[in-house]
Each structure stands twice: as structure tokens, then as C-alpha cells.
């Protein structure tokens, strides 16, 4: 009676629960009552324990310390047949309640973001592990086979559904077998196999021992689906979903028909039963079935490795929260070619989300019992849509899930005034054609830091405290009293949207498209957000819940004033409604909503165009950053204030029309009070990783707003996932950054800290720390900074240890880092060779990456094929390792050969990489060519016939195998070698530094001989040029300075374009300097050159100036075309310009060559075009005419591998462009080695002019580092690793620098003086161009016709006429 009174008192009474939990004597006696003699006492005690377990963390902790779980298990294990029928159900229900509370504390959360931390977490983790111990499972799982009339199977299934949340526990329960079915040698442990024990069993124990169909537990749960008890059906479906999540061992059998007897007809797949229940009349059963089907679909097909584009995978944050599933071992598909399952799930989910929403509801829906139940059902429906699989996300988008989620969010009212307050301190959208005006200045206590861009409201301000100890004004709290159920639904819908938009740019663009502006008849300014979504029949409602009048334009206004004199305003007009909603959600009081909003920003910012426009203009980028800096330490705030307290900044001025844009202050100072929830911080950091990429306009803004200081603080946190994200952000910041940024990173983050993180216990932290160092070493300046900061010995020690790490990703990043170092100056290579541990560790890594599995007595297994053993990150490491070995072998062949690399390199030449070079370190052909180059340095490549030996000796192994397996191995090798070059036909190599000195170099202009690599040329219907080339010291130094000048000019153009001083089209040739400079040194002044729009270097080398080119790009009167043509219309007397029409320059070049022949000039015309223009019909027409008339035309294809954003392999059936001239002979040339380009041009000119053999087709194999144009970041169709590899290993300038230094022509310091001279010339040219005037209005009517040929009148209208209309 006393316990019953206690039970009635604590139900729904938190304070009473807490009071009882703080009484250890009562809790101890309560747990003892679970094994009391009187069954009634035991039942009441179980009820009280169940009620307390749903109380506070303190109550749960008191139960755990009293060993409540063990007491329950002991009691259940000792129940007698004569015990009252109500006893076991009461105990299983109580144990279920206790297990659910324990799992919620341990995490990860199943759906919504749970509590961040708990005082009971340590004890709860021990208790949860106890629940999945084999002895515990032996007690609990057989209860599922009890008669379904009792509630016991329901409670156990619910326990499994709630408590199974990680892989070890999932594996423990899914592989569990009843004791009679276990192999005898595994009686005390779980097992994954069964035995052929056929002795008689009872009832459900008669399951077949053969592994046919689902495992035992999955079969039992599947059988429970056939009951009529809807609660049991829901519980069994939820338990199956928990088992199948990321678990193909369970999911695959559930998706296939099963049978226990081969003579019987197979039964339908359990998945079909699940889908049938999805059409149940009970919504809870429907949703449980949809979730179960989704997890089965996701786990039935292996997923490819995720692209690391811009931010950590959600799996990185799984230790904190997992409503956003990370990539598991397998993902979705279901039956091949049949999307019935996914369509069924989408239909049910859409119907539940639509219920009660007249905007999207297409048919009457059964109404739930209450509004609270409706919200819970919709919340569960949103969580079903979390599928980190491209196909399922696309299916969800195609079937309207995104539209319904947006409509659902629009039906949730926001409090008045929330949006303006959310926008406070964030940038407004760009103004309309406004001139820049306004300034912010700070003295003493603060400063406004911004950037001024005319007509664009892009100023960013930050309050900075210069006086230590000064208190910051408390930030006003949000008055957002939203019910918990509404906040949970908001979180679920946003998280589902983030998941759907994670993979596809079309989805991201749809979410961020601005709504069509309504008629301007009624313009209203209000403090709430109202605008139509870019989807049919959906609107973002006002606070009152009603949509605005269709003719009104609603804008939002935010104002922020910093401590300095600057202030700013920005309007919200034109911001897409979903982005406005995200701004509001970023400041929501519920951490789960903020987390989901950050995940949405992270997903949207993966689209480059969205990041560079909507994310910046709407203020979302700075909004996420505000989440990340919440609660930053006072020390960092003071340091930042010291840095910024004396700076001044400007904002852009007001624009014309109704929209405005001004610079604004962030209004954020040093953090006070509690910091952000660390799971929300993790999601925010994941988004920030995208915001600091090289193409992001926010990179400089965040860098000036304390990004590095905040990342340094996060690197000191205990959570490995947060440290990983911080390193990821630093890695992206360092990538393709200048020396100033890298020096600042080293100074703020600390070299010693990064080096310590290379030895961090967490694998993800180690991988990203190595990635940071790798990006530092992406160029020679970065290598010098890295070695100066870390120290050569310490750095190489860390690399050597990492190369031997058991984790493949760590080995891969260590290999990339070492390859970058080896591609540096000779002194760095000598350091690597002198280190006692690096070469042995490198050899071990290459051996592990190339190792074949030893043959087995069975027929040659598929797993031993090249594609199987090369499919890991360790296999991917072959690329950088082989490249590193090739570079080191050139400097110290004896040392490298003595380290045992010859056998491993021969193995690489035989097997390649199986077509699995995923990291951008080149193709199979390039990998093999690098290995052969290294062997050449050893003394020559010799092919070894595998059939002549009976042992696998490629790695120095002496593993003897039967001849039959050798033959099978040879066949397998033949099948994967189809992509490799044919024997006797070597692929063109594109290394920039393989030319060798012959003899002693001369001084000044005295010529000397060098010898090109044998694979520098490939020919078609002609001989290759001589490999021995005459050059001189003066010529090489001049070419070096010219290449540096061209590089600096293009880099300056890049910066001017990003500063919005260059407008319109701008195509840069960074990386292709060897083509332009080599061409100029191989021709004579009166030869003619014509090319496309990537023409700046040619214009300067053919008689123009750097100042003339940059002035033209800036639209200034001093430009080469008086500022009226841009880069597509630059000319000199012997340079016929860049041409804007793709391929049009080729027939024009043929015409120029015709004129030269007609005038009997002893000169040639060089017409250049890209691989993207090679398929133009006019190109082939020009070839035909040139050959027909035997014109002195040299057609040059600059093959930089990509035509705009399409690779050559995807656009051309024949990518050997030098063979496409039909009757015209061709020559393929290494366009990254300037000496090879020089020799090829000399050969071509001699062919056409001296020998008069007619036209010749050259293909320069080169590479551009940037995108097709400045509007293309160049990373959406190729990997960053690929670009970085080319920069660090095959850069033409670095190659020539290596020649000059190694041949003793100039020292490193002398070359640095040439670099500084080139930079000074470009800097001066930029200043001249900036100071030059723009063309006058009257110049619009000049330069239309050649001077002296102007007609007496010109068609058109005078300016005065136009203005007077």
C-alpha cells in the first residue's frame, strides 16, 4: 500500500521524484523490493522505478548507482511458472522505461537533439553496455517468442528500438543466437555464424541453422509483424529499423525472398510485409513501417566514398548527435530497377505531412485525435526523410517532399519582430546601382571594420574592445515562447530539408531562388517576414499565420550601431523566404532548431553559386559565424580588440530605388554567459568550413573577425569531432591562400599545436592535422614557411610515424604531405633522403598499398583482383608515394634503390591502380609512367614476363604458388591493364623537370646542350623532334622572368576581379605559362599569333605591356584597346588577338597564313585553340583548306584537360588531338616543360617555313590551375587534390627553376630577385592602370573602322537623341 501511494504521488510530479531520488535509503530499499517475496510489492516497485526513470538525471543516477538494471535482469531470469501473469509484463515495461532513459543520456540522439550533457552519463554508459552483454541478451531476447497475448514481446521490441543506437550494440543483437544454435567453441560470446546442429528443438527453436534469410532476431521480429496488435506491429517495425540501420547483414536478407527449405517455394521478402504495413490505417504503424523500409533501402547497396568538398561528413559529428546519418557501410537501393518501395514511403510521408494543411493537401486525410498528436506524427514523418543517399534524396525532391516541408514550415507562426532582430548586425542584400558612401571609425573602445563596394551593401563590422576589463552590454534575450512540440517539428523539418539538399545543386538552387517581385502598387514595410516560396502553393506566413495581400511587398529592416561611429542598415527585400527562415532559426532558443539551421546552411553552401550570392547577401554566412563565436573566451576577444581597435572601415552607400544597402556593424563583442551547445557549434563549424574556401567572399571577412582565434580555442576542446571540424576549417583556409594568410595561421594557431595534433589519439584529428600541413606545403613558399615554423626534423619524424599508422586515411594524408615536400627545392629532397626513418616508412606504405593477397587453394578469388585490393585509401596512396619516390630517385637513386623500392615499383608498373586513382593524383597511365621514370633513374626499365616465374616477387616476397594460379593471375592482370599504354607506345609525360644536362653549361649567351625525356613527344605521320636541345643561360633566365611576370600578371588580374574592379569576362592562363613563353622563344618577331580569350601572356610577349593589358581589363583609356575591348579584344601588329567566338580564331589564322603565302613571306602563323574548341566544325574546315593549299599554318591545341567544366574524355571520342588533322601530321608535346615546348615550336616553324611542308598540328598537354573563367571556381568538376597535385608536382615555373639551380646557372637568391622584380613590375602596372582615366563618351564612335576607311555616316542614334526620348 505504501509503494502504491508513492507511485500515485510521483506520477507527473517532478519535484516529488527528485525528493525521492535524493533519499539513498529509499532508493536502495526500492530496488531490493524488485526481488521481494510478495508479487504485489514487486509490481508496485517496478512501477515506481519506471516513473523515476522518466524523471531528472539525478533520479536516473540514483537508480543506476543502486544497480537497478541488474536487479531487473536477475528477477526476470528467475521468474517461476507460477508467478502472477502481471509480474513479467510489469518488469519488462519498467526495464524498457529504464533502458530508454539510459540510451537517451548516452546518446547519440535518435531524432531530435537531446540534452547536451548529463551527470549520469558515465554510469549510464556502463549500464547500457550491460544491457547488450551476452548474458543479458540470453535473458531478454527469448522473451520475444512468448505468446503475443501478453505485452512482454511489445516491451522488449520497444526496448530494442530505443536502445540500439550504435554499431557494436547493433551487431551484438543482430548476431545473437539461442544457446542451442551456437557453435560449441563460442558458448560465452556472440557469433556471426551458425552450426549444422540438427537435434530436435522446441517451438521457435526449430529455426534452420543454415544462414538462409534474416538472422534469428530479424526473423522473430518479422514474424511479429503478422499479429493484429498494432502496438506490437509498431514496436517490431521500430526494432527492425534499428537493426537494419547501416547494417547490410540484416537489411539485405530482409529485402530478398527467403526460405528455410530449398524444396519449398520462397516466401516473399520481409520488405514487402513492411511496405504492406505502411498502408495501415494507424499512422504510428505507417511511420514505423516507412522508417523500417528506409533503413533497409539505405543499407542494401554500398555507397561510394563521400566527396570532401567543403566540409566534414555528418559522421564526423556522430559522437555528438546523429539526426543527420553519416555515411555507413551501405546505402540505399532496394531491388534493382524497382523504386516501388521508395515511392510508397514518399507517398505515406507526404500524406502525413500534408494532413491539415490546405496549401498542399491533395485529398481528404483522416484527422488525428489532437493537435499535439498531429505535430508528433509530422515530426516523425520528417525524420523518415533523413537518407544520406543521392538517389533517395533526389527521389524525395522529385516527389514533392521538399515542397511539403517548406509548406509545413510556413504554417508554423513566428513571433512578431523575430526576423528584424535576427537580421540585426547582418548584411542586407545588395543595393541597386548605388554609389559607395559612409564610413565607420573607432577610437579607443571600438572600430568598425568593413569593405566598400559601390552599389553593394557588403560592409561587415565588428565591435572590438580595446580596454581590458570593460563590460560588454548584455545581448537582449529572445522572447520566443514556442511550445516544445512545435520546436521539435521545426527541427525535424529543417533537418530533413538539409538532408535532401545535401547532394544536388538543383535542390539547393530551388531553395535559394528569389521570389518573383509582386506588383509595386502597394509597398509595405513590416517587421515580420512574408514572401512566397519558390515552390507552388507555399508561402512564408506572417506572425498571425495569414499570408499577406498579393499586391504588397514586405521588407525587413535591421539596424546595428557599433561602439565606433559607424552604423548600418540593410533591407530584407529580395531575400528568398527560406533563407529568411534560416536566419530566424539560427537564433531560436531550442538548440535542435539552431543545429538543423546550421546543417541547412552547410548543405546550401556546398553550391558555389549559392555561397557566393545568396549565403553572403542574405547574411546567413555571418549568422552561422555568430553561432560559432557565441561564448568565445574573453582572452580571444581582448586579443582581437587589440588587433582591430585602431582600424577603420567603410561600407557601401545607399542605392537607388526602394532597396538600400549600407555597411553594418556586427554588434558582437566578447562573449559573456554560457556558450553555444557544442553540438550546435559542431554543425556551425561544418558550415564555416565551406565559408572559408578560396572561392568564398566571406573568407577575408571571417579571417578579420577572429576566425583563427576561435579555431585555436576550439582545438583545445575535449570533443574530437569539434577539433576535427576546426582543423578542417583551417585546412580550407590555408588551401590556395597567400603567404600572408599562411604566416598568420602559423602564428595564431601555432605550429607546435598542429604538430601535436598529428599524434592525437583520434584518427579524424590526425588526418585533418596532416591535411593542414599538406595544404601549407602546396607551393614552395608554403614549404619554406612550414619548415621554418615546425622544423625539418620534427616534421619528417611526424611523417614517418604517420606513414606506418594503421589507419589508411592517415597514411594517405601523410603520403600527400611528403609528396609536396619532395616536389620542393633540392634541399628539401636531400633532407628527406638523409632522414633515417622516412624511406623505410615510405617503402612500407607502398608495399602495403600494392600488396596482393596470397593465393588460396580455391580458384583465384575475385577479392584478389586489382580492383578489389586497390579500392581503399591505402591503395589511393600509391599516387603520391610513387610520385615522391620518382622525385627522390632523381636526386638520390642509389639511396632510394637501396631502400628496396625497385620491386614495389615494378609491381606498380605491372598492375597499375585498377582504375581507382580517386584522389586526383593522376590516372593509371600517369602513375605507371611515374613508376617507370623512377626505375629509369635506377638504371632503366625492363619488363619482366610473369609467365616465366612461379612466384610473386613484385614486392620481394618469396610466396610460391601453383602454375594454374599464376596463369589466372596473369589473366586478371591483363584484364585490368587495358587502360595502360600498349607496350612500345609510351604515354606522353607531363613532368616539368625531367630534362637532363649534357656536358657543362655555358655562360651568358653561350649555348649548351640538354636532353629531353624520351616521352616528351608523340608523333603522328611525322618524326619527333630531336631530344637534344641547345639553350643558353641568358635565354633560360629570360624565360624564367617572363614566366614569373605572366604568373604575377594573372594573379593580379584575379585579385582585381575579386575586388570587383574588373567586370565581365576574365579568363586566366595560370599554369599554362610554358606554352606562351616557349612559343615566343621559338618563333621570330614577324611570325603571326592568334588565339582565343585566354590571351593575356601572348599579348604582352607579342609587343604589349603588362600595364596595357591590365588597363584594358579595368576598362581604362590607356588599355591596349583603349579600354573598350577587354581580354577578348587585345591586339598588336603581330598578334591578332584574343577572340570571343569559340574556335573562330582557327579559320582566321588559316586566312593569315594564306596571306603570308600569297605575299611570299618566310613566316608562319600560329593559331591556338583549346581542347574545348577542338570539335568545332570550322576548325576542321580550316584544317582542310590549310592542307589543300599547303599553308604555313601551325595549329596548336592547348589541351588543359577541361573545356569549360567538361573533361576531355567526356566531350571527345578521340582525345589524342594531335591525330585529328587527317592529312596534317601532328605532334603531342609536354606543355609543362618549357624546353620541350621551345623545341616543338622550333621544329614546327622549320617544318612550315624552312622545309615548306605545309601545316602541322601541335597538341600541348598543359593544365590551368583556375577555373575556366573567374566565375568558375574550378572545383565542381575536378577535385582540389588534382589541382594541388598539378601545382606541387608539375608546375612549369618550378620545373624551370629546378633546371636553373641544379645546372648552376643561378642561385635560389638570384632567382628570388627576379621574382621580386617581376612582382614590382606588375604592382606598378596595376597602380598605373588604376590611376588611368576611363574612356570618354565620344570614344564610343571611334575605332569602329580601320583608320582611313570610315564611312561618311554611321548608323545608330546619337546619345542626345537617346537621352531626350
Architecture overview:
It comes from Tricholomella constricta. Residues 469-484 have a biased composition (Acidic residues). The pyruvate dehydrogenase complex catalyzes the overall conversion of pyruvate to acetyl-CoA and CO(2). Residues 170-206, 303-340, 420-484, 510-573, 638-673 are annotated as: Disordered. Helices cover 48% and strands 6% of the residues. By secondary structure, it is α/β, with parallel strands linked by helices. The chain has a 6-stranded mixed sheet with strand order 15-22-23-19-18-17, sandwiched between helices. A 3-stranded antiparallel sheet has the order 13-14-16. A two-stranded antiparallel ribbon has the order 1-9. The protein is elongated, with a radius of gyration of 35 Å. The model is unreliable at 186-213, 303-337, 420-477, 516-573, 634-673, 852-871, 913-921 and 940-986 (pLDDT under 50).
